[in-house]
Amino acid sequence: MKVLIEGSTLFTKGYTGIPHYIICLHKALKKNSNIDVFLAYNLKKIKSLKHNKVNIKHLWYLKNILFSLKHKPQISHSLHTPFLEIIGSKKIATIHDLAVHLPEFADYNFSSEYFKKKRFKLFKNFAKNADAIISVSENTKKDFLNFFDYPPEKIHVIHLAPVFKPKVNVHIENDTILESYLIKKHHYYLSVGGISLRKNSYNLLKGFHLSKKHLQNKLVFAGKISLDEKSKLDKYIENNNLKDQIIFTNYITDDHLSILYKNAKAFLFPTYYEGFGIPIIEAMSYRLPVLTSITGSAPEIANNNAILVNPFSEESIAKGIVELDSIDDLQLEKAKNYASTFTWAKVAKETIKVYNSLAN
């Protein structure tokens, strides 16, 4: 079966969730001998080809025309945006989340009005023209159906899998890396996903301070930094003398992130909303106690293996941080075993089932 995956998001500077999804799914599909898979890049991106760090066999397309005489795909799969509608193929779209459209977050300005309108138009196109939809969680499926008229039986829930897993042999010296961030093993809490309003960085900072855990531990924010949001954190840090207890890494390498996971005391992820929440599973695979939110898909993905808190309340976050100390080794091993059930081989297998249901 010939499959085309829309991969234009790989031209983004600094990879986050969607590019990793594209790469990991493509790699997993390639291991199936019955699937001949190519990436498809929008011709409008050709001037930005230097930004694409991934050397993967690909084709170019414009609108609904694929520039290839040999490759006639049976399946066109859009993993994000734009919607891939190649003539003669069945069209599948993956939906990740609808956070920017949810009324409970209307006043939070997660994105610009332009982005909201553009994204809503994309989802509307999915609802009108997709032969099948893949949702990364039951919660995202529910949100989509609240906005759009689409047959529920044609929306297939396929959970994602960790991007980063514990490495058996890490050749980079742990202590050296930790020292470069001014932290010590098991004396810091880790938060990934960067500094942003949606990741709830400000309330996390206040909750960490309120928990009193800053007296003996540090809080590490790993990932991209929104300058507007960081200015709020900087002011709070200065007013509360927390400068030496809060670490901002900005973008870091995969090896460094793996080491931060491996040596953290616990993982803090009180995000306002996630369509899936891969870091929850990643942290569990490192046997870390996990704190996350009661909102979005987080409870579904955590599946009773994490401390759940109200992300709107720093008091709830603080209480949850303290409660992390009560998680024992048996619970950590249970969570690790649960996390091990999330694999890209499983994602590919379930995705191929959707492909086959349309191809047949």
The CATH topology label of the largest domain is Rossmann fold
Overall form: globular
- For the largest sheet, list the strands in their spatial order: 4-3-2-1-5-6-7-8
Tell me the strand percentage band.
Answer: 15-25%
CATH class category of the largest domain: Alpha Beta
Order of helices and strands: EHEEEEEHEHEHEHEHEHEHEHEHHH
Low-confidence stretches: none
Question: What do we call the CATH homologous superfamily of the largest domain?
Answer: Glycogen Phosphorylase B
Largest sheet: 8 strands, mixed
Radius of gyration of CA atoms, rounded to a whole number: 21 Å
Structural domain tally: 2
Share of helical residues: 25-40%
Structural class, from helix and strand content? alpha/beta
Distance from N terminus to C terminus (CA atoms, Å) equals: 11 Å
> Which architecture of the largest domain per CATH?
3-Layer(aba) Sandwich
Tally of DSSP β-strands? 14
- Figure out the total of helices: 12
Describe the protein.
The chain is of the alpha/beta class. The chain folds into two domains: 2-161 and 343-359, Glycogen Phosphorylase B (Rossmann fold, 3-Layer(aba) Sandwich); 174-339, Glycogen Phosphorylase B (Rossmann fold), CATH 3.40.50.2000. The termini are close together. It has helices at residues 17-30, 113-129, 138-147, 174-180, 201-210, 227-239, 254-263, 278-285, 298-302, 314-323, 329-339, 344-359, and strands at 2-6, 36-42, 58-62, 65-66, 75-78, 90-95, 132-135, 155-157, 188-192, 218-222, 246-250, 266-269, 290-293, 307-309. The chain is built from twelve helices and 14 strands. The model has no long low-confidence stretch (mean pLDDT 92). It is globular. The protein has an eight-stranded mixed beta sheet with strand order 4-3-2-1-5-6-7-8, with helices on both faces.
